[in-house]
Amino acid sequence: MRFVSIRHAQPGMKVGRTVFTEDGKVLLGVGMTLTERLIQGLVRSGVDSLYIDDPRTEDIVVEDVIRPETRQVAVETIEKTVKQITNSNKLARKISLKEMGLHFQQAFGSILDDLMQNKQMVTHLANISTHSPSLYHHSVNVAVLATAVGMSIGYNRSQLIELGVGAMLHDIGKVQLPAELLQKKERWNEAEMEIAKQHCMLGFNLLRKEHDISLLSAHICLQHHERLDGSGYPQGLKGKNIHEYAQIVGICDIYDSLTSPRPWRKRYMPQDALEYLMGAGGHLFEHRLINAFRSHIAIFPIGSSVVLNTGEVGVVCRVDPDYCHRPTIRIIKDGRGNDVRISYDLDLKENLKLFITGFEDDQLFSISDLTGTVS
């Protein structure tokens, strides 16, 4: 299995991982054969990449840290809640939101159960994202990442539920922003950004009134854009005044946002997003939380196609958590760009003169400076 951009997808290729719509429905299932019509449908749906199977990489398994059905239920729970919040009938909205907390606890409970059963994968998350820019998938991705961090620093189940439910709902206030702002395909200007910042308080005011949602979960919504040095919003809090849960979600929110495409930019490479976060340690987030997060992220995810300093192209087939920058590579093209007759594996830990210079399809990624990109 390997990760390819949609522009490299060809009829006859088989889908390696489930492709979801923005609202959590299955668009293409594993094993489906691509046709020109299906590829064009993916393009129209905003899918810029997918996993495919081929004979050279058929033994490379990219496992989901949570089951597709778990993700689907979580995304549908968020979608349903969004529709309830935006229901113009105030009485119907009040009645339908009455059990919101319970529904989110159930949806996150399934996520947590999957993560607890896949502790080996959780120690080094290689592939959790659908790479969808939608609010729904972003919220699930952030919940998975935040829970992994919470598990690593020893949170008990009750704390993980508070953290995870808050992470799933951290952006829920955005649905109360003006529709034209949410639908805009360009970056927000300064005035629009000031309006968008209201989503923290809007979400907090919604969640703190709901039964079965912890006040600490609601504070994640309020504080996930606050920063240690006081440069965040909405209250400009500093240091210990920012809850640890909110810091964790803030870190995960930035990472998933940077590594997912936006209408105005391509995704950033994982190593670039991590580099940005490492630079934020000590002044935007606590160093120990950044380090806990970093220990769970694969810089070069399994299944990604990378280029070596020799010009050879290969697919990442194994990642050693202790040497995440030197994975094992399945070589599929020589230094001149020609397919090799027989693919073979190179362990970069044992070949110290070799190193990865980037991803094969660098057009998937933004190479602009990250300075000032994230609040």
Considering the chains and any ligands shown, give keywords for the structure.
375 residues, alpha+beta, Hypothetical protein af1432, five-stranded antiparallel β-sheet, 14 helices
List the helices and strands and how they pair.
Blueprint lengths: L1 E4 L8 E2 L3 E2 L5 E3 L7 H9 L4 E5 L14 H18 L4 H7 L3 H18 L1 H4 L12 H18 L4 H12 L10 H4 L7 H7 L2 H9 L7 H9 L20 H15 L11 H11 L6 H8 L10 E4 L4 E6 L9 E6 L5 E9 L8 E4 L16
Antiparallel strand pairs: 1-5, 2-5, 3-4, 6-7, 6-10, 7-8, 8-9
Helix pairs in contact: 2-4, 2-6, 4-6, 4-7, 6-7, 6-12, 7-11, 10-11, 11-12, 12-13, 13-14
What does this structure look like?
Residues 113-309 form the HD-GYP domain. Pfam families: HD_5. 40% of the residues lie in helices and 12% in strands. The chain has 375 residues and is an alpha+beta fold. It folds into three domains: 2-53, Molybdopterin biosynthesis moea protein, domain 2 (Alpha-Beta Complex); 68-294, Hypothetical protein af1432, CATH 1.10.3210.10; 305-364, no CATH class. A five-stranded antiparallel β-sheet has the order 9-8-7-6-10, with no helix packed on it. It is globular, with a radius of gyration of 21 Å. The model has no long low-confidence stretch (mean pLDDT 87).
